[in-house]
Amino acid sequence: MNTIRTNILASVTFAMAMFSPHTPALAQNSDVSRDAKSNLSKRDNEEKIRLTRASAFYWRVTFNNPPLNIIGPSEVNELTRILGQIEADPDVKVVVIDSAVPGYFVAHYDLLKPLEESTGMKPGPTGMHPVPDFMVRLSRLKAVTIALIRGRASGIGSEIALAADMRFASREMAVLSQFEVGAGFVPGGGPMARLPRLVGRGRAIEILLGADGFNGELAERYGYVNRTLPDAELDDFVDALAMRIASFDKEAIADTKRLVDLASLPPDTEMQQGWEAFITSVQRPAAQARVKALVNHGLQKAGDLERNLGDYTARFGQ
Amino acid sequence: MNTIRTNILASVTFAMAMFSPHTPALAQNSDVSRDAKSNLSKRDNEEKIRLTRASAFYWRVTFNNPPLNIIGPSEVNELTRILGQIEADPDVKVVVIDSAVPGYFVAHYDLLKPLEESTGMKPGPTGMHPVPDFMVRLSRLKAVTIALIRGRASGIGSEIALAADMRFASREMAVLSQFEVGAGFVPGGGPMARLPRLVGRGRAIEILLGADGFNGELAERYGYVNRTLPDAELDDFVDALAMRIASFDKEAIADTKRLVDLASLPPDTEMQQGWEAFITSVQRPAAQARVKALVNHGLQKAGDLERNLGDYTARFGQ
Amino acid sequence: MNTIRTNILASVTFAMAMFSPHTPALAQNSDVSRDAKSNLSKRDNEEKIRLTRASAFYWRVTFNNPPLNIIGPSEVNELTRILGQIEADPDVKVVVIDSAVPGYFVAHYDLLKPLEESTGMKPGPTGMHPVPDFMVRLSRLKAVTIALIRGRASGIGSEIALAADMRFASREMAVLSQFEVGAGFVPGGGPMARLPRLVGRGRAIEILLGADGFNGELAERYGYVNRTLPDAELDDFVDALAMRIASFDKEAIADTKRLVDLASLPPDTEMQQGWEAFITSVQRPAAQARVKALVNHGLQKAGDLERNLGDYTARFGQ
Predict the structure, then answer these.
(1) How many CB atoms lie within 10 A of CB C90?
(2) How far is A74 from chain B (nearest CA, A)?
(3) Confidence check: pLDDT of B9 > 60
(4) ipTM
(5) How many CB atoms lie within 10 A of CB C15?
(6) Which residues have C-beta within 8 Å of that of residue B84, sequence separation ≥ 6?
(7) C-alpha span between A149 and C13 (Å, rounded)
(8) What is the pTM of this model?
């Protein structure tokens, strides 16, 4: 039974036991989790998040954690370490964030890890948990950040894209979503604070409470991304924009961005409240039951469920 | 002469008398008003606003007050009563607001009733007049609200749609407008507070000060509605979205929405100021003269003027 | 060497001297500046900014300073004088701002004048420098303002359009841009405060830090302008809207706009900070070098560089 502790459901084992005392699904979950672990260990020497430098001024952060670019506590630590390098560098002016994994920008946060691995992380320099800490520091970088979205960007994937300064998406391949409410919990990386300011209250509520996927065309129409481009043109477009910004003066960039930040960034307290609401909500029996059902049907494995997450979340409720 | 008191023009009888001592138009107005009253009494046993429950989780509020779905003090009381039921219900998660009247979501506020009937209403739980009280409480519901707009949504019709969480409109049939400035007065239900936050200052000023109708296509392009759909697909689309949300966890919905509210709702004081500006402005001679001219040409009767309100408002000014 | 003092580069002569002691480019610049001056003197009797009255209610402000509608300290004074007339007039309800110069709404601020001519200007009634003072007073007019954009609106041209209440652009002819970061300095007329509130943070950062031109179609898609119309229809559309608003009641317009202002105008402090950041940044060696290179290649002369400003700014950096 201690294998239960290998996924995020574990922290509410007691509560769950009241609903499903035999927890057959959890046993199956832990098999999934063990498989994932052995896959991970094969890849331990590879970088799950790659930092490359096109030049001193133009860097690239690439998610490279197949098959889904799941982000869990260790990936958050890795992202935070890279963020520190960007903050400390005297030259970098522009950072593109993209994925090397076909079909996925970032699927979502790791729901198979014990919750304590997340809640037990040491606060970052802002005093907040490393997830909201990463999100607010990413937005406040002096360098300009561009999310290049090819494939699915759900949950924390969408939240990282929203924390970046700009978002460009593939017309054919991008699907953005905040699927969390469909899985029974509150998004944790700040989209309640960011989306209403970006796309207006009405469309923000549709994204967050409809909790379904938005393709590139609709994401552009709603302002969820800056622009959607034909997949064949996306890389060149983003590269040209990044090189253009890289040619500008670093101080002019930073001073201009600082004033945009003043006019547009949500207060850190709203980001903190979002994280707390996530932690509280994910421990509720309703969330646990929904996550368990999703895990049982293939969550966090390459396959149909992850490719159609919005469809599956609507199947396991009342 | 006491028949004058049967419409909203009455409260400034003295001021009007200085401009048009014989008030032939007002006499005509009161005929109109009497006709309207006798029509209303025929329908007293029917519900002018219907509450139906598709399920314990999914409710529907339907305007059913032909021919125009005019909303006056008694309809505001009825809406507030229904709102109380939604607030008190432990299960409801999503509420669709629509109309059973062809051509109209809601035409506008009742301009033929004495102003005292509106100003004399008892404040609601927020301490504000029942109109702004209803608007802010509608936005703060734990349940998600969706306005389904087929036909004209002007004045308070547009304001109720804006107070709802999402808006979906018929491509062929929807026309949204804040016509009030064209009739000489300030909108009272909060669009000055909501529209700039939803569509940006430039388009908000066009809507409010151009004061003309916006069809479904343009309303979507401006972000006035979430999306516009072909009329034949609108009902199914909204129904599917509502059923989807109804399948989610109520606490996850409410906790997520509360944080969206924090990021996007205008302060109540702005809603209150809008209501006060409406009451002050509608009593001015300029507003009285314009409303009188509109009444004389068919305001609040099914017909050409109501179908082309934006055209008519531009005819009676300087 | 004192000819250097005829352009905005002069205030950092000492700093520049350390980088390019022979300043051959500056000598060339001053030739350019002398040519410009003699062109100006030919036109001294003409109005560079025309105020016309279509009626007591509907006025028009027309930039008429060929070939580029450059705005420098004297044009700011002229604009402020006209603004005072609009503020003081008891009747005017709507003001259209347009250009009589083919190809240009307003190219940008005068970069060939000594910086002291700008910094030495007396503060306006808001206590701020006349540039931010003009911008915030333009937005707070009781009258409604409409920018009709045919041709290029860059830098202060874009900023005046953003300070106006609405913007309508020519599909074929309009190009909006905030090119400043590409020239090494921070925009001074408030777009960091306005654009994120108008088009959202992501698109605002693309406009400000991509610093390239946005044609009419894209400007509409981003919400940078209200709407883009075929060039042949633009004048009639704006004229009809202006006449419509001119027919409405002045008090209803002013009271409605005041509440929109409350919900949407940035705090004056953000406008002031933008101006200060411009003044600081334009004096840095990096900005001086970039401006000098642009001047050497044709800045502020009718020709290829001004028509393709976004392309040229990317050529002279690192």
Answers:
(1) 6
(2) 26
(3) no
(4) 0.89
(5) 13
(6) none
(7) 46
(8) 0.90
